[in-house]
């Protein structure tokens, strides 16, 4: 006699709304954290209630309190020693000094009246040792940099205004340490941007993801905000974000991915940058970025689920009712039907997609006070 088939455990994340871009991203981030916590069979689906509610299938723990206890360590990051930042600064200065020595030696050799053979011999004898020293100092600096941040991908600095050469060298360093089952840092770097193309107005910076909303306005920076969220969020924040209506009780520290944060100056008595937000939702959404890699093209950087260019960027995301694992979700986000001006809903329903939402990336303010936000989402 066959044993009865056990139904998989499910857990509704009742605090989140999939029609909100921040809620959708936060649900993906929760799924990513479940897998990081050992829930390798965990899948995600959506159920229509008063809002589109995410449902975890086979989560690491089906009890809300236990799940919070299980997931929070994977959001808290590692502890940073008190002297780590000072050591990073010292080793960065040493690395820059070594790089300057290489440039001076190259200029000196070039200024000598040498034959081609003599010039090559001088490079071998005088430049190669300097290159080796600089490489070792860079290695030491990268190790110190990793010690100074709670997560590896934050070594890029405060924002994504990274020189292509530096981005490439950091990516290669992490690639050498990665494995198929341990590649989250590389996934983040792929989501952040690419050294294969540069910002249109800043050729000394990598092409950055369209999710790059916090660029310094109001002294808020993309990666620095993520770092501060990691430091400030608590297990209570996680519980309230997953399982309770969002109260927006937190100040600042926002990735600006919630349309509610599109506060127009003319309609408010105070600076909208001082508005309320939901810290843990922003941190979970940040963790969801690994589902949205970028790639360089002849037309510039493209990113998963984004269409348009320049100031006319549009983010499109699907909702599905059949539970899907992370790799399948990555494939679903790439469906051509989603990018069509009017999606073919019959074709999408055949793939299990029951709703599609869109939000535009918009600018708020003027001059140095410009902020990026999402417009309110709409079903398409």
Quaternary status: single chain
By helix and strand content, what is the structural category? alpha+beta
Order of helices and strands: EHEEHHHHHHEEHHEEHEEEEHHHEEE
Gross morphology? globular
Sheet with the most strands, sense and barrel status: 5 strands, antiparallel
What is the helix fraction of residues, given as a range? 40-55%
Strand elements, count? 14
Mean pLDDT rating: 90
Q: What are the low-pLDDT stretches, counting only 5+ consecutive residues below 50?
A: 264-274
What is the CA-atom radius of gyration, in angstroms? 23 Å
Number of helices: 13
Q: β content, as a range?
A: 15-25%
Termini, distance in Å? 49 Å
Provide a descriptive summary of the structure in words.
The chain is of the alpha+beta class and 380 residues long. It has a domain at 81-148. The chain is 42% helix and 17% strand. Strand 12 (353-364) and strand 13 form a beta hairpin. Helix 1 crosses helix 10 (279-287), helix 4 (84-111) runs antiparallel to helix 5 (116-147) and helix 8 (222-232) packs across helix 10. It is globular. The chain starts with 9 loop residues before the first strand and ends with a strand.
Please outline what is shown here:
The chain has 380 residues and is α+β, with helices and mostly antiparallel strands.
Please outline the helices and strands.
Layout: E1 10-12, H1 21-36, E2 43-48, E3 52-57, H2 64-71, H3 73-76, H4 84-111, H5 116-147, H6 164-177, H7 184-192, E4 193-198, E5 206-208, H8 222-232, H9 235-243, E6 250-251, E7 276-277, H10 279-287, E8 294-297, E9 300-303, E10 306-307, E11 314-320, H11 326-333, H12 336-339, H13 345-350, E12 353-364, E13 371-374, E14 378-379
Antiparallel strand pairs: 1-3, 2-3, 4-5, 6-7, 8-9, 10-11, 11-12, 12-13, 12-14
């Amino acid at each position: 006699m066959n044993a009865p088939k056990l139904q998989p455990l499910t857990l509704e994340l009742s605090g989140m709304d999939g029609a909100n871009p921040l809620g959708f991203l936060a649900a993906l981030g929760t799924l990513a954290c479940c897998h990081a916590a050992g829930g390798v069979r965990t899948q995600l689906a959506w159920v229509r209630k008063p809002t589109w509610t995410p449902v975890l299938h086979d989560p690491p723990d089906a009890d809300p309190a236990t799940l919070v206890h299980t997931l929070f360590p994977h959001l808290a990051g590692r502890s940073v020693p008190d002297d780590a930042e000072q050591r990073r600064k010292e080793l960065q200065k040493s690395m820059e000094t070594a790089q300057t020595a290489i440039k001076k030696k190259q200029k000196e050799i070039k200024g000598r009246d040498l034959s081609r053979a003599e010039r090559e011999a001088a490079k071998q004898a005088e430049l190669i040792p300097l290159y080796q020293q600089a490489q070792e100092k860079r290695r030491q600096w990268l190790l110190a940099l990793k010690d100074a941040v709670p997560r590896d991908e934050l070594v890029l600095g405060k924002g994504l205004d990274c020189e292509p050469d530096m981005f490439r060298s950091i990516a290669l360093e992490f690639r050498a340490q990665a494995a198929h089952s341990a590649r989250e840092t590389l996934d983040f770097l792929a989501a952040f941007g690419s050294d294969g193309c540069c910002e249109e107005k800043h050729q000394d910076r990598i092409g950055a993801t369209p999710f790059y909303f916090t660029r310094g306005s109001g002294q808020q920076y993309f990666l620095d905000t993520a770092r501060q969220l990691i430091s400030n969020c608590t297990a209570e924040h996680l519980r309230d974000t997953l399982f309770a209506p969002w109260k927006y009780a937190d100040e600042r520290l926002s990735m600006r991915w919630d349309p509610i944060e599109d506060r127009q100056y003319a309609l408010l008595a105070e600076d909208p940058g001082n508005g309320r937000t939901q810290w843990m939702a922003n941190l979970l959404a940040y963790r969801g970025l690994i589902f949205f890699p970028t790639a360089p093209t002849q037309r510039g950087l493209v990113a998963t689920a984004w269409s348009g260019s320049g100031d006319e960027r549009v983010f499109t995301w699907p909702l599905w009712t059949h539970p899907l694992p992370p790799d399948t979700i990555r494939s679903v986000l790439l469906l051509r039907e989603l990018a069509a001006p009017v999606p073919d809903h019959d074709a999408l329903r055949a793939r299990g997609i029951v709703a599609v939402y869109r939000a535009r990336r918009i600018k708020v303010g003027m001059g140095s006070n410009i902020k990026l936000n999402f417009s309110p989402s709409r079903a398409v």
